[in-house]
Amino acid sequence: MDSFARHERPADAQAAVIRPRAGRLDALGLSVRLSWRQLRADRARLATAVAGVMFACVLVFMQLGFKGALFDSATNLLNSMRSDLFLMHPMTEASFRPEHIPRARAFQALADADVARAVPIYMAQASMRNPETGKRRMVQVIGLDVTANAVQFEGLAPLAPALTRPDTFAFDRRSRPEFGPVDEMFQRHGPFQVQLGTKMLELVGLVDIGPSFGADGNAVMNELNFRRIFSRQASQTDLVALRLRPGADIPTVQQRLRTLLPDDVLVLTHQELVAAERAYWENGTPIGFIFVFGSIMGLVVGMVIVYQILFADVAGHLSEYATLKAMGYSNAYLSGVVLGAAVILAVVGFIPGLVTSLLLYDVVAKGTFLPLHMPLDRALGVFSLIFGMCFVAGLLAMRKLRDANPADMF
Amino acid sequence: MDQPLELSNITFSYGDGELRRAVLKDVSLSVAPGEIVILTGPSGSGKTTLLTLIGALRGMQEGSCLVLGQEMRGASEAARVALRRRIGFIFQNHNLLGFLSARQNVAMSLELHGGMNDADRLKRAGEMLAAVGLAEHADKRPAQLSGGQRQRVAVARALVAEPGLVLADEPTAALDRASGQEVVRLLSDLARRRGTPILLVTHDPRILDIADRIVAMEDGRIIDTSAASSPASH
């Protein structure tokens, strides 16, 4: 008897807890259904609201897409310089405007037993003439020992023998089309002469790098050719790529080099090098802010549209809402109806917004050669922004419910 | 059995200070189970204010107002909302939700009460609509119905949840004579069959005959209570 009673009590208590919660869930479902029925009733208004959310969605996606693409493209060059560690001057802000570092640092780094190769990289900008139209554009020129195999640009290795000849270079096939149909011409005729800076050089092959903020295209040549064309002293280099022995631990070697080398060079991993370049464009220029500002504007406009629609729905049905209150519907329930409508608009507007953005990404990527793509975290992030935008609009529109006073109904 | 409605010494004023104006002065009234009471009087006599106090739509000031056993004086907002669910309201305008069918509108009354699923609610709503003679119009939107039909939907909505009390404010005001008569007749028949008391405010002399008792108000006081000349017994 005693044990029976003991068994009984918690079950009762549990039932008492569960029942109102189930009721509340039920009420939530019913209020959202009511919001949907109300939204659905006026197709034109629903279309306007969905278009508003979609607009905000597309705007934010495009802004974030451009921002991501520009920062990605800004780091295209450094990203494709695959090596284990890099030496860079601490005052270098961006790769297109490097501070020189003494070439001697490369040889000093070789003092570490785990450093297998140290390859100085020279960088400069020069104009290149379009072989078809003769117009000139700035190109980023990278000079390095192409036979050392320390930096592996895609397509570079097989060109190494040809690039060691005097006055030759390899062109980046992903450069902007303003440089002319270089790829096509090369495929058809093989090597040809192109003016780079003030010299005629032989284009002997193509590599894959991609344009970046600093330059519309890239040209890679052997270190010797570079120094002759730009009359640079060999002792002043811009970047040093270090290859480690297989099995060496990169962070440990990085730490050792930091103590070994003087303060005029930073020792960076590939990832850190790319991050530093990206940070310059994000923080050192107003570009990041411009896109964030554009996104915020999109959200504000979207919120105003959604607010207007929800507000009009409440204001146009004040007596109906007051009647529902008189019937015993609580304020919280009716607030749920308004918020439910906001949340439905967020979801219903986001989906076509996402689809449209994906289509636009594709079109824009083809038109501008910017690497536009839709990472999952961006899609989720924009969804939360749109959700938040609609939620705030709903909260604002909810205040109008106070005007629905059932005491005024008689 | 307790009276469904018991008012004693209710005094109510609007405004503050010098603008304070009493609209109800020491009003006492009770309604018996199943009784149909009509409240009449010129506009400004306070009958609408009285109805809002009984309907728990407004907070009390002085006096006692027992509605379905619940004291309204000092009642919390939550208690008032809960009480409203046990009262059927009929307004001058039907105030049906335009985006719902007649059946869905009536079912809205049932959604407040747990223990029914959607199919049950719609079935009950359909039966109620049949009882007000709108069986074949159950799936129409309010815009597709005539004024009298809409008010009949409102009657169905007020009665479907089996309220303990029905409060009606000028239910015929927006209707022509014939449909007004029909709506009130339906209301009183259905209420009588279920034993639901009705408190109905009206100016309309044509519908006084449905009442068991007619209470006349003037200037915030009850001035006359009389048994109706011909209580509807048919």
TrEMBL record, chain A:
Q: Where are the transmembrane segments?
A: 46-66, 287-311, 332-359, 379-398
Which terms are listed as keywords in the entry? Cell membrane, Membrane, Transmembrane, Transmembrane helix, Transport
Q: Which domain of life is it from?
A: Bacteria
Q: Which InterPro entries match?
A: ABC-4/HrtB_transporter, ABC3_permease_C, DevC, MacB_PCD
| Location relative to the cell | Cell membrane
Membrane topology per record: Multi-pass membrane protein
Ranges for the ABC3 transporter permease C-terminal domain?
293-406
All copies of the MacB-like periplasmic core domain together span: 47-259
Pfam families for this protein = FtsX (PF02687), MacB_PCD (PF12704)
GO cellular component entries: plasma membrane
Designated name of the protein:
FtsX-like permease family protein
Q: Which organism is it from?
A: Rhodovarius crocodyli
From TrEMBL, chain B:
Write down the species: Rhodovarius crocodyli
Task: Indicate the segments forming the ABC transporter domain, all copies.
Answer: 5-234
| Listed CDD domains | ABC_MJ0796_LolCDE_FtsE (cd03255)
PANTHER family, per this entry? ABC TRANSPORTER, IMPORT ATP-BINDING PROTEIN
Classification via SUPFAM superfamilies:
P-loop containing nucleoside triphosphate hydrolases
Q: Which family does it belong to?
A: Belongs to the ABC transporter superfamily. Macrolide exporter (TC 3.A.1.122) family.
Q: Name one GO cellular component term.
A: plasma membrane
Could you list this entry's UniProt keywords, alphabetically sorted. ATP-binding, Cell inner membrane, Cell membrane, Membrane, Nucleotide-binding, Transport
* Molecular-function GO term, any one: transmembrane transporter activity
Specify the protein name.
Answer: ATP-binding cassette domain-containing protein
